[in-house]
Amino acid sequence: MKIAILGATSQIARDLIVSSSSEEEKHFHLFARRPDAVKKWLDSIGLSGRYPINDFSGFGTQEFDAIINFVGVGNPAQAVVMGGSIFDITHHFDEMALNYLQANPACRYLFLSSGAAYGLCFNKPAMRETPAVVAINDLASYEWYGVAKLYAECRHRAQPELSIIDIRVFNYFSRTQDLSASFLITDILRATRDKVVFKTTSDNIMRDFIHPSDFYKLINVVLSASASNMAIDCYSRSPIDKLSLLVAMQKKYGLCYELIESSVSVNTTGEKPEYYSLNTRAADFGYQPSMSSLEGVLQESKFILDYDGFAEHTVACWQE
Predict the structure, then answer these.
(1) Is the pTM of this model over 0.70?
(2) So what's the pLDDT on residue 312?
């Protein structure tokens, strides 16, 4: 199967490339705005020359069985910097793929969407019947990313004759995570690594971290299934709440944390107390996740923290 990877510099794309590198039947062609960065990365992991690499000007000149579009932003800080251009960038590369499908209707298209496409309706997890909620008369800048994804999904549903699967990623975590990103899990890992007290509010939240192996499994079952046009949500075997995650990280890796009273503040990504999905439509493709959120986070954290294998125990907090 010949597969075009759009946005090959993204973390989740790179993890999928590594997971698939032993498969002889998959032939990736990598496209990126910075092809030299992709080449350097492949060299660094022992895959030099394994895949052809081009900038996007070379897209469309070959025949592909599938396209996977990873183009986007990897963390909230990047989304803020991009501002309103997130609409243009999302539309541009999505249009590129759609034009290819119009000329090659047998090709499949996997679009990396986001749970943010649902809007800010996460006082409870998303379900199959959950509607997208957009504050159309008072749209905040932190909603632009989700609206851009929602707009792309709407365009895809409007072309039911094309094989397009939108894959909504909620939380993804692997050992390649950029620790400078502004996420709960990266804040926890930096505090653990640097041996500083992690301070967080006592408000509990739920998150669902899909592991790279399960994401790889999801992509494979979608590519192997009959052609269809729909959206599916990513999910692990079970989500994890913040307080349970803190206890587990303390027990396993010595995190020292302090719960503080909630204060009135503006969350730059919106309030999402239960940002995960119970929409298991992906199971219709044969997807069955192997790892829970906690199992995946603990496994990948081991590599990030270079944990040396000490027996599990509760580590007393250090004094600064």
Answers:
(1) yes
(2) 42
